[in-house]
Amino acid sequence: MTKKLFIVFEGIDSSGKTTQAELLKKYFLELKERAVISPEPSNGIIGNLIRQALKQRIIFSKDQDLFDEQMAYLFAADRHDHLYNDIDGVFKLIKNNYHVISTRYYFSSLAYNCDSIEQYNFIKKLNDSFPNPDLTIYIDIPIEVSLARLQERSLQEIYETKTKLTKVREQYQKIFAEYEGRAIAIDGTQDMQEIQRQIIDAVKTILTIQ
């Protein structure tokens, strides 16, 4: 392999993004390729602030619309740092011959932080300058499956409700129906190994056409 890839996993909470990202990293490592998982929110200063807000340890605003707007600004700032910082930014890692696998990217902002056309356009404008990944993998699961998996967690985050996740899933489906970049949608209720097989097939296809 010569081309180093920036690959993004998207989907509602507990769709299997982290599991499949780990399996994809393992696949690259078995091929003697460098690979790293670099999630969003990032592990940087702004990313940690976002994580605290999602856990409701920090309250920016009790008004949901204002909270979503504030989070959209924070995610965009964190995303810029995630891509371009000189220590462990996505493009720094790619330059150093790593495949970079991210769980979440700007698609998550479009899915989670807007409930109206006006909010969607605002968030889209915030993220317009960010480049598309080489491949986006959208793992789709029913809301009931997500909620059942989330019940196994000890702490529920602010967006992990049936009402919110229903809206988010609908938004994801709209986003990827209109998206013109390279993306695949996978049924996340399938066997874990079958999901992995489909992902690896898609990655091989991208590498073949580079």
What's a quick, concise take on this entry?
It is built from 9 helices and 5 strands. Helix content is 53%, strand content 12%.
Question: What are the salient characteristics of this protein?
Answer:
alpha/beta, Rossmann fold, five-stranded parallel β-sheet
How would you explain this protein's 3D organization?
The chain is α/β, with parallel strands linked by helices. It has one domain (6-209): P-loop containing nucleotide triphosphate hydrolases (Rossmann fold, 3-Layer(aba) Sandwich), CATH 3.40.50. Helices cover 53% and strands 12% of the residues. It is built from nine helices and five strands. It has helices at 17-30, 45-54, 64-84, 90-95, 106-112, 117-127, 143-150, 162-178, 192-209; strands at 6-10, 34-37, 98-103, 135-140, 183-187. The protein has a five-stranded parallel β-sheet, with helices on both faces. α1 (17-30) packs across α9, α2 (45-54) packs antiparallel against α3 (64-84) and α3 packs parallel to α6 (117-127). The mean pLDDT is 93.
